[in-house]
Amino acid sequence: MDIDETTLSGYCEMRREDFHYDGKAFNAWVVSEEASVAIPGAKRLFDEARHLGVTVFFITGRDGATEPGKTVDQTAQTAHNLKLAGFDGYGGLYLRPADMLHGKTIAYKSAMREKIIAQGYRIVMSIGDQWSDLLGAPQATVSVKLPNPMYFIP
């Protein structure tokens, strides 16, 4: 599962910024507890998957490693916000490492899916709000593209 606009909602932040992207404001918001609003359908799907014994992984484009003077590692706060929103007991959380901060999202998310498969898992479903969450190899058996009228990430 992707996180932003798939699992957790950023609508309040987008509204506060008058639907204009402000990287500094977004990065401050994403590490605040305000960023722990679950999207109800995603929470229901997560709970049902866990109930059925399916291991759920999160792959997000958030910064997961520091690049001196440029980024802040958002891993701990993202995990905290997922827990606050009720997403607990997942199999892994992948944030974009420093060596992939400036590359294509498709390449990064594909590499993280490859890591999951290398652990012995089969990816039965991928869910995201951007095509870049789903495309590339390996792919899930089923990919679900959620609508996002707010922004597009290539």
Task: Describe this protein's structure.
This is HAD family acid phosphatase. The structure is a single chain. With 154 residues, the protein is an alpha/beta fold. Helix content is 32%, strand content 13%. It has five helices and four strands; from the N terminus they run H-H-H-E-H-E-H-E-E. Strands 1-2 form a two-stranded parallel ribbon. Helix 4 links the parallel strand 1 and strand 2. The longest helix is centred in the last third of the chain and has 14 residues, at 105-118. The model has no long low-confidence stretch (mean pLDDT 92).
Secondary structure layout:
Elements: H1 11-16, H2 23-30, H3 40-51, E1 57-63, H4 75-84, E2 92-96, H5 105-118, E3 125-128, E4 142-145
Parallel strand pairs: 1-2, 3-4
Pfam families: Acid_phosphat_B (PF03767)
Protein name: HAD family acid phosphatase
InterPro entries: Acid_phosphat_B-like, HAD-like_sf, HAD_sf
Rg, rounded, reads: 15 Å
Number of beta strands: 4
Helix content: 25-40%
Shape: globular
Give the tags.
HAD-like_sf; alpha/beta; two-stranded parallel sheet; Acid_phosphat_B-like; 154 residues; 4 strands; 5 helices
Can you give me a brief rundown of this structure?
The chain has helices at residues 11-16, 23-30, 40-51, 75-84, 105-118, and strands at 57-63, 92-96, 125-128, 142-145.
